[in-house]
Design a protein that fits this description.
mainly beta, four-stranded antiparallel sheet, 79 residues, globular, 0% helix
């Protein structure tokens, strides 16, 4: 089942820690901010922690797991 995700905080600059919560997030292989790859700091079944990468633009966050790719409903604002 493709995960549904929410993102906290909703905005931040490069280096900001972002927590993505939802279900079925185990084994996350990729996180991206409007297509810009971001590092995965940690992941569990209900949470992925990442940081805003340099060069990221305002837009949706995507999380790729073995079951598919989930996209945040709201855009993340890069400040």
């Amino acid at each position: 089942m493709t995960p549904a995700v929410t993102v906290v905080p909703a905005s931040g600059g490069a280096g900001t820690t972002v927590t993505i919560t939802g279900q079925n997030l185990s084994g996350a292989t990729k996180v991206a901010f409007d297509g810009t790859p971001a590092p995965i700091v940690s992941d569990t079944a209900t949470q992925v922690v990442t940081t805003v990468p340099a060069g990221a633009a305002t837009g949706p966050i995507t999380v790729t797991v073995p079951a598919g790719t989930a996209t945040s409903h709201a855009n993340f604002t890069v400040s």
